[in-house]
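Narrative of activities, Objective 1.

The group set out to show that a structural description can be obtained from nothing but a protein's sequence at a throughput compatible with the screening campaign. Below is one input-output pair from the validation batch, recorded exactly as produced.
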Amino acid sequence: MLPGPIETSPLGPLLAESVARAAVGSALHWAGPVAMAERSPRIGMIGTRQPASSSSRAIDVLAGLIVKDGGIIVSGGAIGTDLVAHLAALRGGGETIVAVPQGLGCLPTDWRSPLLKEGGGRLLLLSPFGVMQEPTRQTPVVRNRLIAALSEALVVGEAGMTSGTMHCLRAAREMGVPLFLLRCGEEAEPGVRNFQENMSDEGARIFEAAEADTVELKEEILTAATRRREELAAIREAQLRLF
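Output recorded for this entry:
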């Protein structure tokens, strides 16, 4: 069961700004407390559907630490890394936003039942599609842009070079979202290792799995999110002065 009725009413200013930044159209629907999408800090956490146990644990622990400091976890509801992050947020007493790659009216009745069971009033589902839009090859790409736009910092777990995770990461990079990448293991594709090195040169923070349970990494992420929020507020203020 969805965490509330499917709604589409005028968006709050910050959510409307995120939707515009994502360039995903105006057909946003939601179920759950939509005010959550206006609160901060919002931390995106994404990755492969088949994470190694060390990667899964790192995301689980880090998400739990972030929500204890009031952070809201944003992800895409996919099995694997996304679901680990969402559930860690809820089990840690926090809130989480799920951007789905289809219409909310098309979710199977047993869709992510552990997530819906844990959610209560702390789960918001967002869809940038019409209520009855079935998933296609393109809808996850659109959904990933929404995740990037909502996130004030983005944490990336394992990912292949052709995965949806990379689509989201590149969108976040394009939008100027601070990036935190879990260092890939020796088994990763050579292209992923090279990509991470390039991202590090461009300012992304590459972190080790062993750092996930440290206060220092959590604080780096939350501080980066604060800077991002301040940057967007400054842009908003400058635009208002122009008009």
